[in-house]
Design goal:
The complex is a heterodimer.
Chain A lengths: L1 H30 L9 H11 L3 E3 L4 H20 L15 H21 L3 H32 L4 H5 L6 H17 L18 H4 L5 H26 L10 H28 L8 H21 L2
Chain B lengths: L13 H25 L5 H23 L3 H19 L6 H32 L4 H8 L4 H19 L8 H7 L2 H26 L5 H24 L3 H28 L3 H36 L10 H4 L1 H14 L6 H19 L3 H32 L6 H4 L6 H19 L1 H16 L27 H21 L6 E3 L17 H4 L1 H6 L1 H4 L1 E9 L5 E10 L2 H21 L7 H21 L1
Antiparallel strand pairs in B: 2-3
The chains are: A mainly alpha, B mainly alpha.
């Protein structure tokens, strides 16, 4: 049963992750009175990239070559730590909420290195900015983990997922994590996925030299990361407890329910993206400082028990 | 006074044994490394001298962590300091060595002065220099005396450990020594100060009131942040590593401070847990910082420069060193599945358990400290992306890097052993924690026999019966499996080989190394974000041929050394002023000096008569 659940969770993540990105871009386009690309466009993109040839910079070393595999494997491993279907299997015992932060940083670390590897100054720019943003996001992320885990009594993700009551602390925690997710998934106002303007791009600048299959792996990894973060926000803000799986129908029902909650988060992200302008890089420090303060409030509320 | 010889001179409890292991585990690979490193760098006579000094240095450190007598401890401590001073000034080719050595020896003796004061107070109360006797006497000691002793030890050992603002000597002294010595100094020597703190504050004084732990935590947080922010700004690779040592000492002290804090609020289980976390990070830092200094030494040996702005592209010239350095930077950035990840996870977990179990405002305080640790860890990752990326990746930025060659086998062997330890200490975490619990138990005097730290051989669990796990082997397995799956999918979809072509240059000219990102550019966002502390300033100068024609333009950017300028500068000025004043006493007249001797004698006789 366990191995089946692991596979199901993997398939769930791989199938649903690009959909969320497609959905966000569709909503954004519609809100801007455009027709926009199909919701399924990210799937087409990945298919296209997998079938295309690849160009590698002559300056690049083996770091550039192995990076896509490490990025993809770290995000897939992170997807195994989240209790969607496998909160009782040994794969889930691999790590807790705190370990998730570190696994995220593994993929980011290698992507930042590979960006420096090609010797392009776009890559260096992206690498430096990404490490800057993520370093400032880290304390807020840590406070979310603490305030949420404080309510359930352990840093295990499935223990807070098992909660049924929505508290004030959870609300603040979810907002904090939402802001962190905006920074981590390179969304407006921190970064912009749609632009290739060298002065503003962060994540795109790091992946600029990648093409073909390698780029497909990196894109897939960033979809996965986004989905994991959305899933965690949904778990905090919509506490519905852990599912009980009787049969395949129940499983299907739960995955739809999971998806529905994540779609709400995706809509929120799309709304934020169309309603604010991108910030200057140095304003991001204020943005994440605000997230940090919200995190402190979440912790205070959790300490007070509200 | 001879009586101290009758008591047991050495103390081999699990705490001392742990530190002996730390010394051995770093010194041996460093010694192997030095075979290749010293060759060609120094004359044969000097190489022999370096071996002699190295032997005494390692022996004196071993003595420091095992001796059971405060007086002999001081002697060993002093030998360690002096020998390391000689090693700092070993490179007499460079003027900087002398300056670095001067700063080091002054600072270290200020620290020793505080220790001597502390030991004299202890002797007054215990009537003995034996640690166990002093420990007994401490039970009856008034709390004010204990508080004074705590402060003296914190400053005394803090100077050696490099706690901010007493860290000033560390970034001068550590980089200046030969690299294998830097590796031992940063990896092991500053840890003997942590040993001193654990031995004298936790073991002998017994952790004390909760403000002791709070003070240690506060200093630790400041040390972490200041250390890593300075490391981020640094362009000299060895100084970068030295500043990062300051940061890591802060992380270790977070574990030690938590242990003191938890003991004082009567949470023995958590005290043991956080001391384990601190000790774990201690040995991990010894391993990866030792490794990184050895790698930095290899880079220096191969290129002749420590300035990373002049390096680049070394991954192709020095493939082995690059792999070892990569393992080191991954470990120090706390990336799974290496050892640094485990110990930082443990410390964060200790903070979380503190937030869970402490009462009132302490919860909030611990939560904010943990967030600061998270910030430190993020900044450390950025710092080491810079260190590795600028040094090893892209195109060489100068002829130094252009002509680099891989280093000799003995140097590679030293680095190989330490990088193996980086992996092993991650995978075997559960087994190591069980060993560390003995050392933590011996240090705190808490009975650990019915405490459970590991569920089974591979999984860590902070509290028995709780459902929090970290399994490094399982994480590694997941990473390897998914990496293989990703590779399989990659290989499945196309047999066409990748086309090798130029880096995208926007269609202009061929890119060269001058287009690459530099270390200074990389750290620019951080310099702006932390400008309230770093106070960056620019120096620009126009070199004119005539009024109308500017021939050249120089541009420099610096950060203000806050501690040097605002703390040490004024103190130095004061010292020199008072020295100038005191000089009046010494006009060189022998009659006056005879007069001084006579007056001193008179005073002494009066003094003896009265008491």
């Amino acid at each position: 049963m366990n191995i089946v659940l692991i596979f199901l969770q993997l398939i769930f993540f791989l199938l649903a992750a690009p959909f969320l990105s497609g959905l966000i871009s569709k909503i954004k386009n519609n809100l801007r009175m455009r027709k926009g690309q199909s919701i399924l466009q990210p799937y087409y993109n990945i298919k296209k990239l997998f079938l295309k040839g690849e160009v590698v910079s002559e300056t690049a070393s083996w770091i550039f070559r192995v990076c896509p595999f490490i990025v993809a494997s770290s995000m897939l491993a992170a997807a195994m730590l989240v209790p969607v279907f496998i909160f009782q299997s040994p794969a889930h015992q691999a790590g807790d909420f705190l370990a998730l932060i570190f696994i995220f940083s593994l993929g980011r670390f290698f992507l930042a290195l590979s960006a420096l590897d090609t010797g392009s100054s776009f890559g260096g720019m992206g690498s430096s900015r990404e490490m800057f943003i993520s370093a400032l996001a880290e304390p807020a992320f840590c406070l979310v983990v603490f305030s949420v885990s404080l309510q359930s009594g352990s840093t295990d993700i499935s223990s807070f997922s098992g909660m049924h009551a929505l508290t004030v602390s959870s609300v603040f925690g979810a907002i904090t994590l939402f802001l962190v997710a905006i920074a981590e998934t390179s969304r407006v106002p921190v970064d912009n996925q749609e632009t290739h303007l060298e002065l503003t791009m962060v994540h795109e600048a790091m992946a600029l030299e990648y093409s073909g299959r390698s780029l497909a792996l990196i894109e897939l990894a960033s979809y996965l990361k986004q989905m994991i973060l959305f899933f965690l926000i949904a778990q905090i803000i919509f506490p519905i407890g852990l599912p009980v799986f009787g049969n395949l129908a129940g499983l299907f029902f739960w995955s739809l329910w999971y998806l529905a909650r994540m779609i709400i988060i995706a809509i929120a992200v799309a709304l934020v993206e169309v309603s604010v302008a991108k910030m200057r890089l140095f304003r991001v420090a204020d943005f994440l400082g605000f997230a940090f303060i919200l995190g402190i409030i979440a912790l205070v509320c959790a300490v007070l028990g509200v | 006074m001879i009586s101290f010889l009758q008591t047991q001179l050495f103390l081999f409890d699990p705490l001392s044994l742990f530190f002996l292991v730390v010394i051995a585990i770093i010194s041996l690979p460093s010694a192997i490394y030095s075979f290749g490193y010293l060759k060609g760098e120094y004359s044969p006579a000097k190489i022999n001298l370096s071996w002699f000094l190295l032997a005494i240095f390692v022996l004196s450190m071993a003595a420091v962590v095992t001796i059971n007598n405060a007086l002999i401890f001081l002697v060993a401590w002093e030998i360690m300091s002096l020998v390391s001073y000689f090693l700092v000034v070993f490179d007499t080719k460079h003027d900087k060595s002398i300056q670095a050595g001067m700063i080091y020896i002054v600072m270290t003796h200020i620290g020793t002065a505080f220790l001597i004061a502390a030991f004299m107070i202890m002797f007054k109360h215990a009537g003995s220099f034996d640690f166990l006797e002093i420990k007994k006497a401490c039970l009856a000691m008034p709390s004010q005396v204990k508080n004074i002793l705590f402060v003296l030890f914190l400053i005394g050992f803090g100077t050696k450990a490099g706690i901010v603002p007493l860290h000033i000597w560390l970034p001068y002294a550590h980089p200046q020594a030969p690299s294998h010595i830097s590796s031992i100094m940063s990896g092991v020597m500053i840890k003997t100060a942590i040993y001193g703190m654990i031995r004298f504050i936790i073991f002998i004084l017994g952790a004390g009131p909760s403000w002791w732990g709070t003070i240690v935590l506060l200093f630790a947080v400041i040390t972490c942040l200041v250390g890593i922010i300075y490391a981020l700004m640094e362009r000299d690779i060895k100084r970068l590593l030295a500043y990062s040592s300051v940061e890591n000492i802060g992380i270790i002290l977070l574990g030690v401070g938590l242990a003191m804090f938890f003991t004082s609020i009567n949470l023995p289980y958590l005290a043991i847990f956080s001391l384990i976390a601190g000790l774990y990070h201690l040995i991990n830092h010894a391993i990866f910082k030792g490794l990184l200094f050895l790698c930095a030494g290899s880079v220096y040996k191969a290129t002749g420069t420590r300035n990373i702005e002049k390096l680049g592209g070394l991954i192709k010239k020095m493939p082995h060193t690059a792999v070892y350095f990569l393992i080191g930077v991954m470990a120090i950035s706390a990336l799974p599945p290496l050892n640094g990840f485990v110990s930082e996870w443990l410390i964060l977990q200790a903070f979380f358990l503190g937030v869970l179990n402490a009462i009132g405002g302490a919860k909030l305080f611990l939560g904010v400290c943990a967030a600061m640790l998270a910030l430190t860890s993020g900044l450390a990752a950025a710092c080491f992306v810079k260190a590795f990326g600028i040094t090893f990746l892209a195109e060489p930025r100068s002829h130094y890097a252009q002509s680099a060659k891989e280093v000799s086998p003995s140097m590679r062997a030293g680095m190989f052993i330490l990088s193996l330890f980086c992996i092993l200490f991650g995978l075997a975490a559960a087994a190591i924690i069980r060993q560390l619990s003995k050392a933590a138990g011996a240090a705190t005097g808490i009975d650990i026999s019915n405490m459970k730290f590991a569920l089974n051989n591979f999984t860590l669990s902070p509290q028995a019966g709780e459902s929090v796990y970290l399994s490094v082997p399982l994480i590694s397995l997941l990473l390897v499996i998914f990496g293989a799956v990703a590779f399989f999918v990659y290989a499945l979809f196309g047999r066409a080989k990748a086309v090798i072509y130029k880096t995208w240059d926007c269609g202009y000219y061929k890119l060269n190394f001058r287009n690459e990102y530099t270390a200074t550019a990389f750290s620019k966002p951080f310099r702006v974000a932390f400008s309230f502390f770093l106070r960056p300033y620019r120096k620009t100068q126009k070199i004119r041929e005539s009024f109308y024609h500017v021939k050249a333009f120089t541009y420099e950017t610096h950060t203000t050394p806050v501690f040097k300028k605002y703390i040490y500068g004024p103190v130095l000025v004061l010292v020199f002023k008072s020295a100038k004043f005191m000089r009046r006493m010494q006009p060189g007249s022998i009659h006056l000096y005879l007069g001084y001797i006579f007056i001193t004698l008179l005073l002494l006789i009066l003094f003896m008569h009265k008491f």
